[in-house]
Specification:
Elements lengths: L1 E4 L6 H10 L4 E4 L24 E3 L5 E3 L1 H11 L12 H25 L8 H18 L13 H10 L2 H4 L7 H11 L2 H9 L5
Parallel strand pairs: 1-2
Antiparallel strand pairs: 1-3, 3-4
């Protein structure tokens, strides 16, 4: 498998998931700005969306969109426990969280990273994000992870996205449960390895 990624982007989520499972994979750096690969070739030629992540399987199949990719990864290593079994109510709860993170949090950050977003809109975007993150903080009141006591790919995705606040002025220091959650995830060996590989930590 090949994972096309950009350092610190949402592709960090499947990157961590791959390291958690121990599945063999190759990292391929893809610039989301220039749409070029490290060898200078055109990323758009293989992925017209021009975004990361993209997972290329050994048979040539390509999967895009983070929530789909992390579920695929988890299903290749069911013993990892990163996703409940397909068809169970717990699996639908996982999908519920993945959808919430991708639509309400991930996309909520997009205007704050976009250079053409009007300055007067940014406080509105930050407040909306904080409200949604406060909801997550409340959900963590009686559990260690989003699904309870079982660590999953939804936790990985939340860890990645909630970490973007430091770059765009979204201060989560007033959300103690989310902060504690982030500390738990950050201490995991697979998370440390992935972040080192992307140059995010030393």
């Amino acid at each position: 498998m090949k994972l096309y990624y950009s350092p610190g982007a949402c592709s960090l989520s499947p990157h961590i998931a791959l390291r958690e499972t121990g599945l063999p994979f190759e990292l391929v750096l893809a610039s989301t700005k220039t749409k070029k690969l490290a060898d200078g070739s055109d990323y758009l030629a293989i992925n017209p969306k021009g975004q990361v992540p993209m997972l290329a399987l050994d048979d040539g199949t390509q999967i895009t969109e983070g929530p789909a990719i992390v579920q695929y990864i988890a299903d290749q290593a069911p013993a990892s426990g990163l996703a409940p079994a397909a068809g169970t109510i717990e699996r639908y709860k996982l999908m519920e969280w993945l959808n919430f993170i991708t639509s309400e949090l991930h996309k909520g950050f997009s205007p704050l990273f976009a250079p053409d977003t009007p300055d007067d809109y940014k406080p509105i975007a930050r407040n909306r994000l904080l409200a949604r993150l406060a909801y997550v903080d409340e959900q963590l009141a009686d559990r260690s992870y989003l699904l309870g006591e079982q660590y999953s790919v939804a936790d990985i995705y939340l860890f990645v996205v909630s970490g973007w606040g430091q770059y765009v002025g979204v201060d989560i220091s007033g959300l103690p449960r989310l902060m504690a959650f982030r500390a738990r995830i950050a201490a995991r060996p697979a998370v440390i390895a992935a972040m080192k590989a992307e140059g995010l930590i030393k």
